[in-house]
Write a structure and sequence with these properties.
By secondary structure, the chain is of the alpha/beta class. It has five helices and six strands; from the N terminus they run ββααββαβαβα. The protein has a six-stranded mixed beta sheet, sandwiched between helices. Helix 3 crosses helix 4 and helix 4 crosses helix 5. The model has no long low-confidence stretch (mean pLDDT 98). The structure holds ligand AR6.
Amino acid sequence: MPAPTAVRGDITAQRVDAVVNAANRAMRGGGGVDGAIHRMGGPAILDDCIARFPQGLATGDAGWTTAGALPARWVIHVVGPNHAAGERDRALLVSCYRRALEVADRLGARSIAFPLISAGIYGWPKPDAVDAAVATIAAADTAVTDARIVAFDEATFDLVAERIARL
Ligand code: AR6
């Protein structure tokens, strides 16, 4: 696919077909991006998580729900590895991006906004989290034409933009 683009802002405000949520295995909400998405999207997202994912989701996997009141149509939930808790298998982080794009293709989504998965509460070192995001999205075989990496702060935005420039 074309190179991803770097965006600075709040992922919940993105006008895209699908926003990606950095969830956990239980899929019942949490802090960070997960908290923001459930807060802004409203209770329909949690209802759909419970209905469609009674057992939650495995680390490295992706699954979709409604986006509720968000401008997006779908939320694609992924579960990144929890580096802070000792989950250090990088293939699981790469898998989150690949699987999210596969789910997007199945939905017919053409635009998607990713957060930097595992790079917050889960503590994945920021430069490697950026590298995994940019390289995996850029190499994916997908019908998605607009893939954004949404950075919350200026320093992270700069890291993402610099890595994209090196593609
Ligand atoms: N928009 C864009 N980026 C954001 C936003 C936002 N609204 N909020 C945070 N970030 P995190 P993780 C950035 O912690 O590390 C939850 O409790 C943040 O600065 O959301 O995968 C879940 O339920 C960081 O760079 O996700 C899980 O238990 C990045 O998004 C756990 O946290 C990801 O940070 C998942 O932790």
